[in-house]
Structure formats: structure tokens, C-alpha cells
Amino acid sequence: MSDNTIKTQKFGAGHILFRQGDIADNCYLVRSGELALSRADSSGTDKTFGKVEKGEVVGEMSMIGDTPRTATAKVSKDIEVGVISRDEFEAQLERLNPFMKRLIRLIVRRLRDTTTDLTRD
């Protein structure tokens, strides 16, 4: 993946990058700033469970698993991100050998299940 395929965007504190339940069309490489991750509990109240900082990627699990977002990502400190489109992400996955692609999808499914269990009411 080259820098030519990753577009840069900036967002201010309070901006919602994506919401729980959204369809994944991008994932993001945090270049500066910080995101808070939250999930809605059974009453609809958002509960923060993590943060994403410089050098980390967010949104990849929904792209790998082709499932809706399991969390909301809200900018907690002004942020600059590299935006990786679904098409570019899929092109990178297709370059992997089939075993590695299946293994990555299995790991993501297990991690998603664990995250869901740990953030449940």
C-alpha cells in the first residue's frame, strides 16, 4: 500500500468517525490525535471502553469480517488520519495466501466475540 492510495483527513474533537452499526467503507490509520471507542449498552447509553492513538489502525475488523461496526469512534483530541478505502483494503487482503487470509478472519471473529462479551452490560 503506498501513500498515494491513502488519503489524509483531519477532524476536530467531538467528530464521530463512525458509529456502532455502520457499514464499513474505510479504515483509518491515526497519524496524530486520539479517538475514544464506545459501545451502546442495552439501555442505549454509550460506554467508553478504549482509545486509539497515533500509529494505530481503527475500523479494520469490520472490513476484514465484512460486518457492521461494533463500536463508535469519536475524536477525543483533534486528529489526522490516513483513510484506507474498502477497495484498497480488499486488494491488500487478496495478496495474502488463502490460509493467512482465513487465519486473519478467524482471529478477527474471535476478537470481536471477546470484545462484545467484555463490553456487554
Helix and strand pattern: EEEEEHEHH
* Dominant shape: globular
Fold-level CATH name: Jelly Rolls
For the record, the CATH architecture stands as Sandwich
Task: State the end-to-end CA separation.
Answer: 39 Å
Largest sheet: 6 strands, antiparallel
CATH class: Mainly Beta
Q: Provide the residue-averaged pLDDT.
A: 89
The CATH superfamily label reads Jelly Rolls
CA radius of gyration: 15 Å
Helix vs. strand class = alpha+beta
Helix count, per DSSP? Answer: 3
Identify low-pLDDT runs.
none
Total beta strands: 6
Tally of distinct domains: 1
Query: Strand-residue fraction?
Result: 35-45%
Percentage of residues in helical conformation:
25-40%
Compact overview of the structure:
The chain has 121 residues and is of the alpha+beta class.
Describe the protein in words:
With 121 residues, this protein is an alpha+beta fold. It has a single domain (3-119), classed as Jelly Rolls (Sandwich). 31% of the residues lie in helices and 39% in strands. It contains three helices and six strands, in the order βββββαβαα. It has helices at 60-65, 86-94, 98-119; strands at residues 7-11, 16-18, 26-40, 46-53, 57-58, 72-85. Strands 1, 2, 3, 4, 5 and 6 form a six-stranded antiparallel sheet that branches. The chain starts with 6 loop residues before the first strand and ends with a helix.
Secondary-structure blueprint:
Elements: E1 7-11, E2 16-18, E3 26-40, E4 46-53, E5 57-58, H1 60-65, E6 72-85, H2 86-94, H3 98-119
Antiparallel strand pairs: 1-6, 2-6, 3-4, 3-5, 3-6
